[in-house]
Every structure is written in C-alpha cells, then in structure tokens.
Amino acid sequence: MRRTPAIACGAASVLLASVVHLPAAFADPPPSLRVVGQDAACPTAAQVATVLERMLPRTKITADTGSPGAAEATVSDQGVRFRVTIAGQERSFDDGAHHCTERARHAAVFVAMVVDPPAIADLPSEPPAAPAPVVPPVDAPRPPPERRPSGWQWDMALGAVMLVAPEGEHRRNAVAQGVAAFARGKRGFHLGLGAGVLHGTLHFDVANADAWWIPIDVAAGFTTRTKVWEIGAEVGPSASILSIAGENLKGARRQLRLEVGGRVSAWSRFWFSKQFGAFLSAEAVVRPFPFVLDIDPRGGVGEMPALWLGVSGGVTVALE
Fold first, then answer.
1. What does CATH list as the number for 154-319?
2. Dist. CA 200–CA 243, nearest whole Å
3. CATH number of 5-122: 1.20.20, 1.10.600, 3.20.20, 3.40.50?
4. Are strands 73-77 and 32-36 parallel, antiparallel or unpaired?
5. Which residues does 3 contact at the CB level (< 8 Å), separation at least 6?
6. Cis status of the peptide bond prior to 143, with omega within 30 of 0
7. Do you find a cis peptide bond into 118, omega within 30 degrees of 0?
8. pLDDT in tens, 213-264
C-alpha cells in the first residue's frame, strides 16, 4: 500500500523525537499493555494491537473500547489525522487518505518506542502483515416476505342468523333464527356456497304453524381487503327445504316443500390475524313463488313470506 507524504513525514518525526526523548518512559517493557480506541475508528484499537504483538513479544497486548488508564495507549481518529497517546507522550499524524493499515503501523511504532525503544532494532525489515479484516456485525435475519396466495384460496364463515319477514295478508311478522356456514374464495371475484338450519313460528289469522328451513345458497361476489378489514358483496340463487306443520290443529301433518328464489348479501370482516376474524352480514332473500298453507276443510289460510330480511354474525377462518 502506498503511503501518503504526510504520514511518511509524521513517521520520520516520530522516530527522531522518540530517539531523543522517549527511552526513559519505561525502564522495562510492561508485562501487559491495553490499547484503547473506537470500534469504528481508523485505525481501530484491534488493528494497532495486532501490529504491537509483533513488536513487543514479551508484552501481552489487548484491545478495548473503554476508558484509558495512565499507562495505556490511546488511539483517536480525528478525520484527516489521528493521534496516539502513551505514558504522557503524544503524537499526531496527518493522513487524509485514511489508510487504516498504515495508520495502525505508525501508531504501533510510536507506542513501541515509548514502551521499549531497544525493541525497535529487532523489527523485521518487511512491513507486518495486514491485520485480518474486520468483519462487520451480521444484521439480524429479516423475516421472510409475506407469502401471497398464488391460486384459489378459501375461507369458512360460521355464525348465527336471524331472518325477519314483513307482515302479509292474513299473517303477522315472521321471525326465523338459526345457524349457517359459508365457504368463499378469498381473492377478488369469488364463488361461494352456504348452508344452514333455521327455525321459526308463523302466526296466521286462524292458525299458527311451526316451520324449519334448510337453506342452500350459491353465490358469486367480490371482496376487497386491507391488512385487517375486509368488505364484500354477493348475489346468487337460493333454495330452501321447508318443513311445516300447523300447531294445535287436529290431524295436522308435517309437510315438506322446496322454496326457490334469490339472495343478495353484503358483509364486513375484521381479521385478528392472517387466519382468524369476525364478521357481520346483512342479506335479503326473495321467494317469488311462496307456498300457500292449507287447512282442511277450510282451505288456504295464508302464504309463506315472499321476502326475508336478515342479519348474521360470527367467526371466519382462512383455509390456506
């Protein structure tokens, strides 16, 4: 490595001044010597200590970043120059090129001349080997990037459902309650499939009826999601297996019917994590051909609701 003129002149002045003034700094080389500097300096204390180990083989050399003592060597990086202090002796060197290896060598020469001047004559003519490169600390491993789903992914929603039908001719308001499950695709436009079980009582002018529904829904919709919130809407056909029987009627028998129509819904979800969340949904179900309830021998007593309005809420789980 080529030395700069400034650092070479500094080294020459160190040699001359040290020969005249420094032999009395230490009577004998100390058994140990600590070199104090900064980890990010040029040179570091470790670089100077590596060179000193060859110059002072009888002295144990250590490097540290703590506070220096009276008989310890201090190396200070001051940008375009660096300063070395040992046993009350101090020298400054100019080096705007920041040749850290050369800086370490000249700092070590100065320290060795103060500590044990005769040892300088035993130095090899060849410059010391460059110290091992300082390996920068390894940063903490970064978390792997979030995996984006590459194909169709699904989530499952399970919740309580309540449907209300407005009052109709010969019939008061009707309420049906139960549970429902729905599986949906998680990406943008999606398909969905749902099923549930509902129970309710219908109050007609002349009789009451106990009813059970098993709704089966197929839907197409769209969802959009931020980190924790999701909104969506869907529409599709709906079919329901109806089981109904008159209450407190002599000879009443339960009947099975199939109701068909359409369903539209909208919902909002809050995701506690990537896999678990809660949802709240609103929906409307239309039955354009409602079933007419008959009682012998009176005949028809009223129609099943043609419109149901409902809400549901529950939990949702992402299926990877």
1. 2.40.160.20
2. 11
3. 3.40.50
4. parallel
5. 99, 102
6. no
7. no
8. 999 999 999 888 888 888 999 999 999 998 887 777 666 677 888 999 999 9
pTM here is 0.51
Q: Which two tokens stand for residue 193?
A: 């499939």
- Residues in a beta bridge with 183: 156, 193
Spatial distance between the Cα atoms of 130 and 158, rounded to a whole number of angstroms: 69
Residue 144's identity, in one-letter code, is: P
Low-confidence ranges of the chain (pLDDT < 70): 1-27, 66-71, 118-141, 143-152, 187, 249-252, 295-300, 320
Please give, one letter per residue, the 3-state secondary structure of the chain.
CCCCHHHHHHHHHHHHHHHHHCCCCCCCCCCEEEEECCCCCCCCHHHHHHHHHHHCCCCEEEEECCCCCCCCEEEEECCCEEEEEECCEEEEEECCCCCHHHHHHHHHHHHHHHHCHHHHHHCCCCCCCCCCCCCCCCCCCCCCCCCCCCCCCEEEEEEEEEEEECCECCECCEEEEEEEEEEEECCCEEEEEEEEEEEEEEEECCCEEEEEEEEEEEEEEEEEECCCEEEEEEEEEEEEEEEEEEECCCCCCCEEEEEEEEEEEEEEEEECCCCEEEEEEEEEEECCCCCEEEECCCEEEEECCCEEEEEEEEEEEEEC
- Structural tokens at position 177: 């309650």
C-alpha distances out from residue 273 to 158, 270, 318, Å: 17, 9, 10
Q: Which pLDDT does position 94 carry in this prediction?
A: 85
Q: Based on the number of CB atoms within 10 Å of its own CB, is 75 exposed (0-12), middle (13-18) or buried (19 or more)? A: buried
Identify the pLDDT of residue 12: 45
> Do 5-122 and 154-319 fold alike per CATH?
no
Q: Would you state the structure tokens that stand for residue 118, as one six-digit string?
A: 């005769």
* Strand 307-319 relative to strand 299-303, pairing: unpaired
